[in-house]
Specification:
Length: about 500
């Protein structure tokens, strides 16, 4: 650091004039001001103010970039024309956080002696000076500078909602924060990363003391209450526009510009597809991880957060249909989740005791089913949403999977005294409170991701079976076509 007690170089004087500090000043007042301010020059990485320092000046940045850190998070960035330490104009104060140089730079320091001695400037110029400082100070703290230019860990949560999507956010924040990392999240998935504005991001904090110190900053979120919260607080509905390479490149540029070191994507197969496209435009120096959160459990090689709650709630729905079918002699054909393998539909059906589970990629003997239904006075059939999806699309079939299966039965000659009701996919399962199994799975996966990040690994998905066995699956081996247990498929057929 170099300190000059007297301002006499033309560059600094021209800068002060450009900033309006000499407006309406006579030559005497101008000279008095220059004789009572100092100039400090810093190299990159030098500390300007620390928490222990007694500060008795306000600083105007002439050039360079200075960062204000609170709890090791960059809360504000000061560049040419910005002011920090305005309280030091009036009294000696303790430093709040740390201010240091990101690049080399120069600041012009205005000590509180200027305001303690009215004869230096005179009352009119003292007032003008205060107004000018207040204006520059307000620009910084009312949005000119943002909190999200240096995001250590950035989480992207996208796609459909699933129980446990909030849970994994909370536990990732906890384990990464304990490892000394700073965690941020896109407010609305890939859409926000493409936009890249301040309002598109949030800072996540687990430690109560840190949150209490930072909660006055717009965008700081307490992550702890998310551990068992319903829904997904930071996600967007499907964002098909992200298939555009230009949007992927813009997202990558924003990630690089914001100095992200580690990127974590959370969601199902659509989220992973978006991540796979995005990382083509990112440097290898940025760590990337993926956490599977999907009720369908359509990611091969690992349990997925949301699958346990999904089956629990889904099975309860099937039990309700069974009770109503028994009471009123009805046949319910119910569409449930299961776009590929049919995990959710199958396990919900078996656990609740449905009469049949109809799954993607499986063939069924309609003659045998019709023969059995003709002799029954109640039945519940669960049809996975992915059943003959391509055939339905090719024939422009407008109904859902349950209605398609009903029509297949009717074409095969179904005759029954039961009233047949087709129920569409029940989306409220997505908003269920995550059960203990999914919360535990979220903790296990979060811990694994934090460990992989601290070990310097990248482009991996944590693999957890039964919440205990930890593995690592490289991105090139992640498959989104999970299969179902053959023996369980047999159990799901109680009709023939």
């Amino acid at each position: 650091m170099i300190i000059r007690q007297t301002v006499n170089d033309k560059e600094t004087i021209d800068f002060l004039e450009k900033m309006g500090f000499f407006d309406k000043m006579n030559e005497t007042e101008k000279e008095n001001l220059l004789n009572n301010i100092t100039v400090r020059e810093y190299e990159a990485g030098e500390t300007v103010i620390s928490i222990e320092d007694e500060v008795d000046f306000a600083a105007l940045v002439e050039y360079g970039k200075f960062i204000h850190e609170r709890y090791e998070r960059v809360s504000t960035i000061y560049e040419s024309g910005d002011v920090f330490g305005i309280a030091g104009l009036f009294s000696t104060v303790k430093g709040k956080g740390i201010i240091k140089t990101f690049t080399g730079g120069r600041i012009i320091c205005f000590g509180h002696e200027l305001f303690k001695k009215p004869d230096i400037l005179g009352p009119v110029q003292m007032l003008n000076m205060f107004v000018r400082f207040q204006s520059y100070f307000t620009d910084v703290y009312m949005g000119k500078k943002n909190y999200f230019n240096y995001m250590d860990v950035l989480i992207i949560q996208d796609g459909g909602c699933a129980p446990g999507k909030n849970s994994i956010i909370a536990f990732l924040t906890e384990y990464l924060e304990k490892a000394g990392r700073k965690v941020y999240i896109a407010a609305q998935g890939y859409r926000s990363v493409v936009n890249g504005t301040d309002s598109d991001f949030r800072c996540l904090v687990d430690d109560p003391a840190i949150y209490a110190a930072l909660d006055s900053i717009t965008g700081v979120v307490n992550a702890r209450p998310l551990r068992d919260a319903r829904g997904a607080n930071f996600r967007s509905e499907r964002f098909p526009e992200f298939k555009d390479v230009k949007l992927q490149q813009q997202a990558a540029k924003n990630i690089i510009d914001k100095h992200v070191n580690t990127l974590i994507a959370i969601g199902g197969n659509g989220t992973f597809g978006g991540l796979s496209s995005l990382i083509k435009h990112l440097p290898d120096s940025i760590q990337v991880f993926y956490v599977p959160v999907t009720i369908d459990s359509d990611i091969l090689g690992s349990d997925t957060i949301g699958q346990y709650t999904g089956v629990e709630v889904g099975a309860e729905k099937v039990r309700c249909y069974l009770a109503d079918a028994y009471t009123h002699h009805r046949c319910y054909i119910v569409e449930m989740m299961g776009a590929m393998g049919g995990y959710h539909a199958l396990n919900s059906a078996v656990g609740a005791g449905a009469h049949l589970a109809v799954l993607p990629g499986h063939n069924y003997n309609f003659h045998s089913i019709n023969k059995a239904l003709a002799n029954m006075d109640n039945a519940v059939i669960v049809v996975a949403e992915g059943y003959k999806k391509e055939e339905r699309k090719a024939t422009n079939y407008e109904g859902n999977a349950a209605e398609f299966f009903r029509d297949e039965l009717l074409k095969a000659g179904l005759k029954t005294k039961m009233k047949i009701f087709c129920e569409p996919f029940s989306r409220d399962i997505r908003g269920a409170t995550p059960n203990n199994m999914d919360i535990t799975l979220a903790q296990s996966m979060a811990k694994k991701v934090a460990e992989m990040a601290m070990e310097g690994k990248t482009r991996l998905m944590p693999s957890v079976r039964g919440t205990l066995q930890h593995g690592e699956i490289p991105f090139e081996e992640v498959k989104t076509n999970n299969s179902v247990n053959a023996e369980l498929v047999k159990l799901a057929n109680r009709i023939y």
